[in-house]
Amino acid sequence: MADRGVEAIYLETHNWGKAAKFFQQLGFELEFATDHDSGQLRSGDGPFLFIAEVPADREPDMRVVLKVPDEQGFPADSPVEVVSPFADTHFGTREMTVRDPDGRDWILQAPGSAR
Asked: pTM of whole model > 0.85?
């Protein structure tokens, strides 16, 4: 499976409004905002930045999403540790999580199944 570059950065925050304004000051443009304290921004034609607010008692996280052409699996002898297999997302793609040798999780995003 070969990736096709960085698709997105998922960023969690304790304050959606402040985070969105911060990135807008850095040149990101708001593409859309949701009614549940999250939204998507982009700078030029680069990867999108999706920011979601999380509760104060939860440590904000950040994840990198790599775009893949499809969800063809890894060979049985692959050194890639699969944390969670491909599953449908609510926004129409399929995602899986893998772990690199240093323990970092990466999201692989493939096109969703035609419905």
From this structure: no
